[in-house]
What we know:
alpha+beta, Four Helix Bundle (Hemerythrin (Met), subunit A), two-stranded antiparallel ribbon, 6 strands, globular
Amino acid sequence: xxxxxxxxxxxxxxxxxxxxxxxxxxxxxxxxxxxxxxxxxxxxxxxxxxxxxxxxxxxxxxxxxxxxxxxxxxxxxxxxxxxxxxxxxxxxxxxxxxxxxxxxxxxxxxxxxxxxxxxxxxxxxxxxxxxxxxxxxxxxxxxxxxxxxxxxxxxxxxxxxxxxxxxxxxxxxxxxxxxxxxxxxxxxxxxxxxxxxxxxxxxxxxxxxxxxxxxxxxxxxxxxxxxxxxxxxxxxxxxxxxxxxxxxxxxxxxxxxx
Length: 258
């Protein structure tokens, strides 16, 4: 847990560096994610952090929270009860950093395989932290793009790529499709040049390319036509056309949000 939390902290620091010092006008400029500005993006991340912390420290409290949300009493962006929409950008950033710190302290206190409740199926603590990494990186890329800031790719992308691979079946199920039989091997080149692989060498199909392109596709920050990923075999091509690493309704555009 310390390793994933250390990486998540580094990714958090990268995002904070982009938004720190923004004017109020800049906080409300639209990002590439349709309908979202940087203010709403940070609200989303912080509220999900709040929910993840509650899940890690008090399963019963999380159950109550989930039940109220399912009943339509409030949505995720209102979960903590804080009046975040009325906050200035600077105030929101202080709130977000506090929620993120509390969540990571809760994660570090749990074992990687501990089961935590969530809005969908239960997850391990490690999977929950990895999901927070994926959201931070993908939403961070939206904010960075808004201001023309380089969103430097690092080997922390391995966490995002892993979720992208692990959610292959989900990408079909989420669209009401049957998960096809057969295996797909994924071979990615990390930003450092290291080679990352998932799946057997004798798989029925293979995906090859850079980790960055794969992560941009899986988080739907880029369309299939905009990334240099090779797909050998029908199973690989079919998957790449619908890949979706995040929960929520099936989407097909690079501006999708979770």
